[in-house]
Each structure stands twice: as C-alpha cells, then as structure tokens.
Specification:
alpha/beta, 11 helices, 5-stranded parallel sheet, 4-stranded parallel sheet, single chain
Length: 294
C-alpha cells in the first residue's frame, strides 16, 4: 500500500549536451515539480519538504550534473543515503555519441563545462569518463543521438507520464553495420535467421511488410527462437522488477536493420505488451530500403 505522502522522485543526470534541459521541460509539462542544477547534498531537504506538502507535490524531478562542479562528486553518496533511508528514486541518465555532442556544441556555440585549454571532443571524453560510475547505477539510460525533441518527449511521456513508477520495455531493431545501440541492456543477434535480402521480390521491402514477415516465420527456426526468447524474458522480468529496475532496452539486430530485426521486434512487442508497457523503435529503418548486406 502506497504511503499518503509518498512522492515519485526522478534524478536526471548525464552528459552535457545530451538533452537534460529539454528533459526537465518535458517532465515539468508532465506535472513534475522540477529543479535544475541542484547540488546533490540538497536532495534530502527537497525530498523532506515535498513529503510535508500534504500531498500537493507528488512528482519531483531534480537535475544535477557537472555544472555543479565539486558538488556533483557527492551524488553517489547522497543516492546511497536515500536508499538507506528507504526513499525510492529513479535515476535517469542521458547520453549521446561523441559526434552528436560535438555537433550540438558547434550549433549552439556554447562552451562545454569541462572545456579548458583542450578541444570540445577532449572535454566530452573527460566528462564521459568522470560519469562512468553514475551511469552504471542508472535505472534508465537514454541515448539521444538520433532523437529529436519530439522523440525525447515521446520516450519520457511513456516512461513517466502516468505519474506512477512502472515497468517499461523498449525494443530496438538495428543493423550491426551501423553499430549496436549504446543504451541497450540486452542485445540479441538474429543474423542466423533466414534472410529476405536474398529473395528478389522481398529485398526492397522491410520487416513491416506482411510478405517479409510471412517469409521469415515460415521457417521453424524463427518460431522456435521467438518462443524461447520470449520465455527467457518472462523468466528475467520479475527479477529485474525485484531489483527496482523500471526500464529495459532490448536490442534486436540483423545485418542492416531492415528485415529480420524489424519483424522480430514487432512480434516480440506483441507478446510482451500483455505484461508491461512497450515501446518499439526501428532505429535503422529510415536508412533506406536497399536491402541488407550478406
């Protein structure tokens, strides 16, 4: 039973330029009481004040990052104290590729918080190294490299929009020739399944086309794999939830991210939607319908 003064506490952190400013605006629109650039040692005080609001403040989002300079180093310790006090929180970590972050800083002409005498790229890599530990502790890691503000809003709304902690699975189809998704928790290589790329009438289609789906799942190996992978996930999910995890990214990859990974991701989403909230992203589908490489 939920305590009457319980709040949903979200800690937002991550790499500079990865979208924390946009994230806090989106969370504010979702009804969160938001504070940006908060020194970590003030988390307990803010939490206490919100709990004493008589139920007027139910959702709180706090942003903290390296702009806080030396104060930021105490974040891990403050989060440990919250856990010891039995205060539940969700740690959201935003990141993006080095290339994307460099491009964003060039476009905005702002100076990176870590930039001294070195380049922006050197500052990004130094910050990434410094945040490695806190990233490893995150409940939710979002890679915003390919995201627009609209995409970010859609993701955050699906995760936080109902105001209650829940469990969300994001299934990402991708092509190995374009790289593995950085924010993936589980990665499944399905390049062993029959490849529609070698069928002339299917090559220019995608895994969203019925003909491609029918071809892939006309083979027993495809159906056996899907059933066993689904059963594995059914076994794992209760343990993830027990450990307090609220967001899981499953990446399903084929060669080019056009056929097999797309079809399997859709099938898997259909099966898993019975037990939790599902998001589906076909990361490389927009890269063209030229078919997969062998």
């Amino acid at each position: 039973m939920e305590e009457p003064n319980a709040i949903r506490l979200v800690i937002v952190t991550g790499l500079s330029g990865a979208g924390k400013t946009q994230a806090i605006r989106i969370l504010e629109d979702l009804g969160f009481f938001c504070i940006d650039n908060l020194p970590p040692m003030l988390i307990p005080k803010i939490t206490e004040l919100c709990q004493q609001s008589g139920g007027k403040v139910k959702r709180v989002a706090l942003v903290m990052d390296v702009r806080g300079a030396l104060f930021y180093d105490s974040l891990s310790e403050e989060l440990r104290k919250l856990s010891e006090q039995g205060i539940k929180y969700e740690l959201l970590f935003l990141e993006a590729s080095d290339a994307a972050l460099v491009r964003r800083y060039k476009e905005t002409r702002r100076q990176h918080p870590f930039k001294g005498e070195g380049s922006v790229l050197e500052a990004i890599r130094a910050e990434r190294k410094r945040l490695r530990e806190i990233r490893g502790a995150a409940d939710i890691v979002l890679d915003t490299t390919e995201m627009t503000v609209h995409d970010l809003k859609k993701n955050l709304t699906q995760i936080f929009g109902d105001g209650r902690p829940g469990f969300t699975i994001k299934i990402v189809s991708f092509g190995y020739k374009f790289g593995i998704p950085l924010d993936a928790d589980l990665v499944m290589d399905i390049r062993f399944l029959p490849n529609p790329n070698y069928v002339d009438e299917l090559k220019m289609l995608t895994g969203l086309d019925p003909a491609v789906v029918q071809y892939i799942f006309s083979y027993p190996v495809s159906n056996t794999f899907l059933r066993r992978f689904y059963n594995l996930l059914k076994f794992l999910l209760p343990y993830y939830i027990k450990e307090g995890k609220t967001y899981l990214v499953i990446a399903v990859g084929c060669t080019g991210g056009q056929h097999r990974s797309v079809a399997v991701a859709e099938k898997l989403a259909e099966l898993l939607k019975k037990c939790c909230s599902i998001q589906v992203q076909h990361r490389d589908l927009s890269r063209g319908r030229s078919g997969e490489e062998p």
